[in-house]
Amino acid sequence: FSSVLVFQVPIMTSAGIAATTAATLAGVRGGCQVFGRLGLIATVASRGARRSLQVAYSVAGAGVLLLLIGNVGAAVGYAIVVGVALGTASPLQAIHAQEIFDPDDLGLLMGLQQSVFSIAGGLGPIFIGQLFEASGNYKASIWVISGAMVVSVLLLSQSRPARHPNVQVAE
Q1: Does position 169 have pLDDT exceeding 60, yes or no?
Q2: Which residue, among 145, 156, 133, 158, has the nearest Cα to 63 in the 3D structure?
Q3: 112-167 pLDDT, tens digit each
Q4: CA torsion, ordered 107, 145, 34, 37, to nearest 10 deg
C-alpha cells in the first residue's frame, strides 16, 4: 500500500484537485485509520483475523478505485474508506500472523514478513512511478494498486491456522 500513500496527492492533483485540498485529504486518510481499529476485537472474535483482513484489503482496493473518478467528492470517499480499511488491516496483519505461525517461530517469521513488506513498499512506488512515466497518467497505476489488494485477498485464502495447543482460532 506504500504506492498509494506515496502517490495519493499527485494522483489527486493530476485530476485537477487543488494541492492543499489533496494534501488535506491525505491527512484525513491518515486520521481515519484510527476508526479502523474501533470494534476490531469483536470483529476478529466473530469472523476471525483472516476473513477480517480479507475484507479490509477488499474495501481498501475498492476505495482506491474511487481515485479514478477524479473529483473532490470521490477523493473524500477515498480518504475515509481507505483510511478506515488501512487502520483495520495494520493490526490485523499481526493478529493473523499470530494465528498462522507457530509461537516458537513467531518473532522470526514476523521479521521475515515485515522484510517482505518493506521490500515491496520500496519497490512499489518505483514501479508505479515508471508506469506513470510510460502512460502519462495514473489510471493504470490505480488499477495495479487495486489489483494488488485482490491478489492479497486471494493469497490470504490459502493461509491456514497453525495447529498448536492452547490457541483457539476462528476459521
Answers
A1: no
A2: 145
A3: 888 988 898 899 999 999 999 999 999 999 999 999 999 999 999 888 766 654 55
A4: -60
Candidates 103, 11, 99; CA nearest to 49 is: 99
Cell numbers found for residue 2: 506504500
DSSP alpha helix (H) spans, 101-138: 106-135
The whole-angstrom distance between residue 6's C-alpha and the CA centroid of its chain comes to 13
pLDDT over 70 percentage in the chain: 94
Read off the pLDDT of residues 159-168 as tens digits, 9 standing for 90 and up. 876 665 455 5
Residue with cell 486518510: 29
Q: Which three cell numbers stand for residue 95?
A: 493478529
Alpha carbon 42 to its chain's center: 20
Chain position carrying cell 476471525: 48
Say if residues 120 and 69 touch (Cβ distance below 8 Å). no
Phi first, then psi: give them for residue 93, nearest 5 degrees: -60, -45
Single out the residue of 101, 69, 71, 87 nearest to residue 30, CA to CA. 87
**For residue 136, is it left (φ>0), alpha (ψ between -120 and 50) or beta?**
left
Q: What is the pTM of this model?
A: 0.86
